[in-house]
């Protein structure tokens, strides 16, 4: 598949997806979203990898939605743009494999929202992260007002959205936006190390962990607990080969073969 704004590379069981529009700091416009959606719908590619790492070309991860393109938007166009972004970011959040954001530089506005749709975030110590929409008379439009408070609590989310200044990677780490910091030249390498570790775990367990966390956040803790017990029970069905292999391998003192 040919893309203008994306690059994709496979390293063994890991896929690396690079936003590739460096002249605009990888800003998100409709074409970028179309390509992202196309990539995420390609089942053959997704099923051929165990972990996806998302990163940006050049000095930015993604500097947000394309401000130039938004200049002429009507309310309907803005609504549609917001919906397109949400659909694509939900596609990422709902992938059955872990997705790591390797934040190589600026992750602002829609760029941070993209990173928030990934499962974990590794950031360059030099990166700046934030939601600066308030400076443009806007609000985050790709689910940032919802994903961020679910990740770091309402107070921290309001702090980032209302100040709109962005924070250093170190502060983002303290707030819980970022799970790991890396020297600028090693962001991808450290993200790939984490990806390799995850790729050695049970794919089915990874899929379920993701599902339980994401769906559970939308349920009462009682209902979420029931959902977990149901899935835990289901893992012990006869046809659940990964559970059998994992437990057998432990007892036989060998590595599991998923
Ligand atoms: N949209 C479109 N173009 C962008 C862009 C964006 N979000 N961010 C940067 N660019 C472009 C610049 O216009 C510039 O293009 P030209 O060379 O044609 O002038 C090029 O990328 C390089 O950017 P800068 O010269 O500004 O680079 P810098 O290093 O001086 O500054 C920056 C970097 C601080 C990230 C600055 O570019 C910036 O503030 N960008 C905008 C960040 C922002 O406000 N993002 C939120 C967008 S709104 C949003 O995302 C809404 C939503 O949720 C739906």
UniProtKB/TrEMBL annotation:
For this protein, the record's PROSITE patterns field holds: ENOYL_COA_HYDRATASE
**GO MF annotation list:** lyase activity
Name a single GO biological process: fatty acid beta-oxidation
Has the keyword Zinc-finger been applied to this entry? no
Which Pfam families has this protein been placed in?
ECH_1
Q: Does the keyword Lyase apply?
A: yes
Keywords for this protein: Lyase
User: Highest taxon of the source?
Assistant: Bacteria
Q: Which SUPFAM superfamilies match?
A: ClpP/crotonase (SSF52096)
Q: Sorted alphabetically, which InterPro entries does this protein's record hold?
A: ClpP/crotonase-like_dom_sf, Enoyl-CoA_hyd/isom_CS, Enoyl-CoA_hydra/iso
UniProt family annotation: Belongs to the enoyl-CoA hydratase/isomerase family.
Official protein name in the record: Crotonase
Species this chain originates from: Labilibaculum filiforme
């Amino acid at each position: 598949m040919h893309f203008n704004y994306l690059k994709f590379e496979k390293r063994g069981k890991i896929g690396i997806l690079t936003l590739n529009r460096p002249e605009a700091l990888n800003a998100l416009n409709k074409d970028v979203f179309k390509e992202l959606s196309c990539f995420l719908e390609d089942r053959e590619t997704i099923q051929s990898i165990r972990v996806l790492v998302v990163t940006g070309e050049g000095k930015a991860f993604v500097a947000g939605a394309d401000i130039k393109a938004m200049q002429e938007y009507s309310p309907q166009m803005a609504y549609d743009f917001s919906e397109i972004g949400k659909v694509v970011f939900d596609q990422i959040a709902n992938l059955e494999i872990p997705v790591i954001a390797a934040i190589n530089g600026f992750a602002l506005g829609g760029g941070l929202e993209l990173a928030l749709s990934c499962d974990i975030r590794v950031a360059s110590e030099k990166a700046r992260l934030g939601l600066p929409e308030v400076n443009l008379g806007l609000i985050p439009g790709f689910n940032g007002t919802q994903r961020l408070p679910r990740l770091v609590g309402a107070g921290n989310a309001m702090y980032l959205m209302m100040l709109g200044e962005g924070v250093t990677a170190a502060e983002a780490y303290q707030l819980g936006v970022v799970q790991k910091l890396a020297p600028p030249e090693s962001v991808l390498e450290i993200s790939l190390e984490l990806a390799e570790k995850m790729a050695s775990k049970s794919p089915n367990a990874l899929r379920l962990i993701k599902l339980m966390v994401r769906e559970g956040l939308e349920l009462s803790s009682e209902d979420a607990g029931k959902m977990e017990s149901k899935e835990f029970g289901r893992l012990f069905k006869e046809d659940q080969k990964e559970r059998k292999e994992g437990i057998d391998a432990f007892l036989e003192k060998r590595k599991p073969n998923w």
